[in-house]
Each structure stands twice: as C-alpha cells, then as structure tokens.
C-alpha cells in the first residue's frame, strides 16, 4: 500500500490504459464480425481445365500419373520425373495448341506448356 500512497495516480493510469486497450480490441473484433464479404462475380477469365488424353490400348504411358505436375513451371528434372511416373519411354514438351508431327508414339509423353512455361496438359503420343 505504500506505492498507492506515494504514487496514487499510477494505479489508476495503468488500469485506464488496460481498459482502453481491451475496449479497442473488443471493438475491432466486433467490427470484423460485422463486415460483409465483398461480392466477387464469376468471370470467364479462369484458365481451361488441364487436358489428359490417353490413347486406347496404350499400356506404356499412364498419363493420369502426370496430374501432380499441372500448373507447375516446366524444367528438365520435372519432365524426367513425369516421364518416370507415367512409365513412358520418352517425353517432350509442346506449345499449347501447336500441331504435332503426324507419327504418334504411344510410349511417348507429350506435355503441353503455356507461354509462361506452366504445364497445362499432358497426353500420350
């Protein structure tokens, strides 16, 4: 009690600060709960879904095993890992929508890549 007698305003000032801080925190919490979410309309800017094309009777290339890489940036180690996981003999990249040479090899993995270098699809052939 000597502290109160020597500095009587200290305890009151300290309690006032604590109460003010608690009131501010409660106000922010209540304000956050009352904020309505911002409406975001659907747009057609979403990228198309990835393409997986498996050739019929193809036992050498399991294209579904390449799904894990969709959206990732292509590089040589990732292409090799995709080739290994799909069981393909060879692998190559192709620009999205670019025509491919006529002879299709069912044991080859073809990975479609967008202009930014991201994988957007995979197929055997």
How would you summarize this macromolecular structure in one to three sentences?
It contains three helices and four strands.
Reported for the largest beta sheet, the result is: 4 strands, mixed
Structural class: alpha/beta
Give the overall shape.
Answer: elongated
Tally of strands: 4
Estimate what percentage of residues fall within beta strands: 15-25%
Weakly predicted, low-confidence segments: none
Cα-atom Rg, whole angstroms?
A: 31 Å
Q: What percent of the residues sit in helical stretches (DSSP H or I)? A: 25-40%
Instruction: Give the SSE order as H and E letters.
Output: HHEHEEE
Explain what you see.
The protein is α/β, with parallel strands linked by helices. Helix content is 34%, strand content 17%. The protein contains three helices and four strands, in the order ααβαβββ. The chain has helices at 2-6, 8-34, 76-86; strands at 51-53, 90-95, 108-113, 119-124. It has a four-stranded mixed sheet with strand order 1-4-3-2, covered by helices on one side. β3 (108-113) and β4 (119-124) form a beta hairpin. The longest helix has 27 residues, at 8-34. The radius of gyration is 31 Å and the shape is elongated. The model has no long low-confidence stretch (mean pLDDT 75).
Descriptive labels:
125 residues; alpha/beta; four-stranded mixed β-sheet
What is the topology?
Blueprint: H1 2-6, H2 8-34, E1 51-53, H3 76-86, E2 90-95, E3 108-113, E4 119-124
Parallel strand pairs: 1-4, 2-3
Antiparallel strand pairs: 3-4
């Amino acid at each position: 009690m000597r502290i109160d007698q020597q500095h009587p305003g200290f305890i009151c000032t300290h309690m006032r600060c604590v109460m003010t801080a608690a009131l501010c925190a409660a106000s922010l919490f209540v304000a956050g709960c009352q904020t309505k979410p911002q409406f975001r309309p659907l747009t057609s800017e979403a990228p198309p879904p990835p393409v997986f094309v498996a050739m019929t009777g193809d036992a050498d290339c399991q294209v579904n095993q390449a799904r894990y890489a969709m959206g990732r940036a292509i590089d040589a180690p990732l292409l090799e890992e995709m080739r290994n996981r799909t069981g393909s003999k060879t692998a190559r990249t192709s620009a999205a929508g670019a025509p491919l040479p006529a002879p299709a090899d069912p044991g080859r993995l073809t990975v479609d890549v967008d202009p930014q270098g991201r994988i957007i699809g995979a197929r055997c052939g």
